[in-house]
């Protein structure tokens, strides 16, 4: 039992000394809380200590501005006490705001509806060929940036398996895709070998990825660019990193054409629902952003990818043709069990 409740039990049992002590301890352990203090007032008054009850009541009145209903039992019990010590029936005192906290903004100007997205930090990282791909290259076009933990992470393979077949759907919605890996450049290959699938070939999710890549590769490329962040500099910049455990985390970010982060998921497990993200991206990207013009400058220039090797539109178009010829893929969306 809480001490204030025990105090009332001892009061009813006739042990006034213990009731007074417990009521006092309840107030001391809950500073500036109104219910323990209201209970102490009642206990003191009932055991005949009217002066102490009056002093405690005066303290209660000082913090009573946020009490919204005097009909609650802890306060209702004080009505007769207030009358006996010449306090008004509504003994609450209006809360006085401090005047040393600066100008208080209007509530209409703050809150979640007024929040503005943060600017995505710029980056430029090498792909498997050593050629740089950077955030600036996506200027003017939304992009989903996936942070994954390299070829040895089976759950990351599952994530890429789920996103790869939806590349064309994202492109059709005007959204690019790029994945940032913890792997070094030499391990970044845009083919089946990039995930070293031979030893894991019987695992269902790996079978799906292998079949998908074999059926949809365009000139040996994965459907969207994979780049290396082996030193984890960009992982840390985007806070996809656990400083306590000193290890990278999975991250998925939706960055709009002005370089603002419109949605993000950072976790110990990869985000694995491309259908939700595509739907949410379409919704979020239609919403106006008040500060977009001011923040967009941090996104830098707007050069298109341009190079044939990086043309996601061409990859998506060819991908769609191949999928039409080979039939739709049955790619699982549920995550595998973790050990």
Query: What separation lies between the terminal Cα atoms?
Result: 41 Å
How would you spell out the order of helices and strands? HHHHHHEEEHHEHEHEEEEHHH
- Give me the CATH superfamily of the largest domain: Glutaredoxin
The Rg value, from CA coordinates, equals 32 Å
Strand order of the largest sheet: 5-4-3-8-9
Q: Quaternary status of these chains?
A: single chain
Overall pLDDT level: 79
CATH architecture of the largest domain: 3-Layer(aba) Sandwich
What is the domain tally?
A: 2
CATH fold category name of the largest domain: Glutaredoxin
The tally of helices reads: 13
Main sheet record: 5 strands, mixed
Task: Please mark out the parts with pLDDT under 50 across 5 or more consecutive residues, or reply none.
Answer: 190-203, 215-220, 292-339
Keywords:
about 350 residues; alpha/beta; Serine Threonine Protein Phosphatase 5, Tetratricopeptide repeat; two-stranded antiparallel ribbon; disordered C terminus
Write the layout of secondary structure elements.
Elements lengths: L2 H11 L2 H13 L5 H13 L3 H13 L10 H4 L2 H6 L39 E3 L5 E3 L8 E6 L5 H10 L3 H6 L3 E6 L22 H13 L9 E3 L4 H5 L3 E2 L4 E2 L1 E6 L5 E7 L6 H11 L7 H4 L16 H15 L13
Parallel strand pairs: 3-4, 4-5
Antiparallel strand pairs: 1-2, 3-8, 6-7, 8-9
Description:
The protein has 339 residues and is of the alpha/beta class. It has two domains: 3-84, Tetratricopeptide repeat domain (Serine Threonine Protein Phosphatase 5, Tetratricopeptide repeat, Alpha Horseshoe); 124-326, Glutaredoxin. It is built from 13 helices and nine strands. A hairpin with a 4-residue loop joins strand 6 and strand 7 (247-248). Helix 7 (154-163) packs across helix 9. The model is unreliable at 190-203, 215-220 and 292-339 (pLDDT under 50).
């Amino acid at each position: 039992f809480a001490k204030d409740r025990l105090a009332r039990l001892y009061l009813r049992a006739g042990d006034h000394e213990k009731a007074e002590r417990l009521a006092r301890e309840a107030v001391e352990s809950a500073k500036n809380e109104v219910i323990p203090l209201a209970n102490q007032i009642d206990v003191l008054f009932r055991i005949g200590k009217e002066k102490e009850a009056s002093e405690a009541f005066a303290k209660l009145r000082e913090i009573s501005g946020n009490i919204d209903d005097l009909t609650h039992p802890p306060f209702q019990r004080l009505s007769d006490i207030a009358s006996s010590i010449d306090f008004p029936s509504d003994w609450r005192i209006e809360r006085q705001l401090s005047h040393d906290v600066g100008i208080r903004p209007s509530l209409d100007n703050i809150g979640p509806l007024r929040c503005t997205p943060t600017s995505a930090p710029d980056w430029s990282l090498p792909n498997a060929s050593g050629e740089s791909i950077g955030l600036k290259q996506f200027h003017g076009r939304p992009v989903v940036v996936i942070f994954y933990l390299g070829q040895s992470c089976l759950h990351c393979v599952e994530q890429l398996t789920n996103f790869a077949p939806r590349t064309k759907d994202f492109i059709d919605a005007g959204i690019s895709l790029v994945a940032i890996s913890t792997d070094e450049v030499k391990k970044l290959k845009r083919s089946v070998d990039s995930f070293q699938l031979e030893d894991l070939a019987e695992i269902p999710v790996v079978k799906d990825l292998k079949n998908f890549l074999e059926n949809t590769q365009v000139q040996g490329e994965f459907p969207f660019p994979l780049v290396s962040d082996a030193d984890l500099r960009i992982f840390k910049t985007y806070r996809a990193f656990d400083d306590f455990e000193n290890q990278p985390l999975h991250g998925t970010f939706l960055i709009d054409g002005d370089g603002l982060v419109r949605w993000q998921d950072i976790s110990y497990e990869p985000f694995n629902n491309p259908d939700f993200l595509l739907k949410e991206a379409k919704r979020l990207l239609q919403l106006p952003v008040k500060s977009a013009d001011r923040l967009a400058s941090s996104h830098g220039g707007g050069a298109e990818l341009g190079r044939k090797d990086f043309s996601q539109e061409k990859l998506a178009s060819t991908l769609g043709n191949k999928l039409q010829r080979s039939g739709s893929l049955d790619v699982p969306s549920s995550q595998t069990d973790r050990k």
